[in-house]
């Protein structure tokens, strides 16, 4: 709890003066004010986060992929079996998954962590072994994990930032792998928002209509059995969350404490952002939303966080795939601030 409390205490608002100076520069560049839309918002927000009116390109780009399993899969809520979680972890480590392809293109390093996969521990020199336990408990019968386990999993995410993000400035993406984790994410969103499960539950890896109705009833049962307290982020996380969701919440808090921008991926990392922002509302200031997932709850998550997604790709894979797709857009925003001519430099007449 000490590391979590210390991290929460270190999170500060971005620099308002740098943000204001970057906005002023954007308005002096040769374009109608605001015409680069979200690119301009990214540019001045980066200035605020870096505390530099002319923010620098990231020297280090990485995507943190946390893997964890979910006891609730015993209820039949996913189209795929639980064994896929460790199988995909090994695929990430061999470089053959979608995230590896897209991260290579974006120039980002893929960091893979086992924070709660079920079954025998995996052996691989590049795997970060930080397992809290071999999957959560079935949360239709009681809490997914203890409060103490939830804190340790968050602190694992904070620790990963400290160990893995060496260079500055840095850019961090969130990724995850965990069969059953859309059920946990819908439960987390329902707990925080009070939205009914049928509005925010989707097909995850591709379940049919019959199974979708069953998944909704499983989520409703989990909420009735556990009664998570929406005013207590740790309570929601421990009762109906997941270990990879906790790890990602820790990455957000760890990055926010070090003023490192974090790019959310899909619905699951969005649920992690809800947890992080419940623990520290200021951490929201360090988040970018990469895309809107096809999962119906994701839109609600982004609305609650007041974040505008950069891409609409109908993606629903996870792994951090949407996050790394957004990396070049964030870099483009920085290039705009550095390389565009001002009206004065170019001799172009300004509007009134
Ligand atoms: O990123 C998303 O929005 C997303 C939406 C649907 C599914 N997923 C991925 O699919 C897995 C969870 O799906 P499910 O059906 O097992 O709950 C997990 O490994 C996620 O990374 C991810
Ligand atoms: C094959 C497969 C790959 C994934 N990547 C993230 N979630 C996934 C779920 C499945 C089933």
UniProtKB/TrEMBL annotation:
GO molecular function, one term: nicotinate-nucleotide-dimethylbenzimidazole phosphoribosyltransferase activity
GO terms under biological process: cobalamin biosynthetic process
Entry keywords, A to Z: Cobalamin biosynthesis, Glycosyltransferase, Transferase
Catalytic activity annotation: 5,6-dimethylbenzimidazole + nicotinate beta-D-ribonucleotide = alpha-ribazole 5'-phosphate + nicotinate + H(+)
EC number: 2.4.2.21
Active site positions: 319
Pathway(s) served: Nucleoside biosynthesis; alpha-ribazole biosynthesis; alpha-ribazole from 5,6-dimethylbenzimidazole: step 1/2
Top EC class, one word: transferase
Annotated family: Belongs to the CobT family.
Alphabetical list of HAMAP family matching this protein: CobT
NCBIfam families (alphabetical): cobT_DBIPRT, PRK00105.1
Functional description taken from the UniProt entry: Catalyzes the synthesis of alpha-ribazole-5'-phosphate from nicotinate mononucleotide (NAMN) and 5,6-dimethylbenzimidazole (DMB).
Protein name: Nicotinate-nucleotide--dimethylbenzimidazole phosphoribosyltransferase
Lineage: Bacteria, Bacillati, Bacillota, Clostridia, Eubacteriales
Gene (UniProt): cobT
């Amino acid at each position: 709890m000490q590391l979590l409390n210390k991290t929460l205490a270190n999170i500060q608002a971005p620099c308002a003066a740098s943000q204001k100076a970057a906005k002023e520069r954007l308005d002096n560049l040769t374009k109608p004010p605001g015409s680069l839309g979200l690119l301009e918002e990214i540019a001045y927000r980066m200035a605020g986060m870096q505390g530099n009116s002319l923010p620098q390109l990231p020297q280090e780009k990485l995507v943190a992929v946390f893997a964890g399993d979910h006891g609730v899969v015993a209820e039949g809520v996913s189209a795929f079996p639980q064994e896929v979680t460790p199988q995909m972890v090994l695929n990430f480590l061999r470089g053959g998954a979608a995230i590896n392809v897209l991260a290579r293109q974006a120039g980002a390093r893929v960091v893979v962590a086992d924070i709660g996969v079920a079954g025998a521990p995996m052996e691989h020199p590049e795997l970060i072994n930080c397992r809290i336990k071999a999957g959560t408990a079935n949360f239709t019968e009681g809490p997914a994990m203890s409060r103490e386990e939830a804190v340790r999993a968050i602190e694992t995410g904070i620790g990963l930032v400290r160990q893995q993000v060496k260079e500055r400035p840095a850019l961090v993406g969130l990724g995850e792998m965990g069969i059953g984790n859309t059920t946990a994410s819908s439960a987390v969103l329902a707990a925080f928002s009070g939205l009914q499960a049928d509005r925010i539950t989707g097909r995850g890896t591709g379940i049919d209509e019959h199974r979708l109705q069953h998944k909704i009833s499983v989520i409703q049962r989990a909420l009735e059995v556990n009664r998570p307290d929406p005013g207590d982020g740790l309570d929601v996380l421990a009762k109906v969350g997941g270990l990879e969701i906790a790890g990602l919440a820790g990455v957000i808090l760890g990055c926010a404490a070090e003023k490192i921008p974090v790019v959310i991926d899909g619905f699951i990392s969005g649920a992690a952002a809800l947890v992080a922002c419940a623990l520290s509302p200021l951490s929201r200031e360090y988040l970018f939303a990469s895309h809107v997932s096809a999962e119906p709850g994701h839109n609600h998550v982004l609305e609650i966080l007041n974040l505008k997604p950069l891409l609409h790709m109908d993606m629903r894979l996870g792994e951090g795939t949407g996050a790394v797709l957004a990396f070049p857009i964030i870099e483009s925003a920085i290039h705009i601030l550095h390389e565009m001519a001002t009206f004065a430099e170019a001799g172009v007449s300004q509007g009134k």
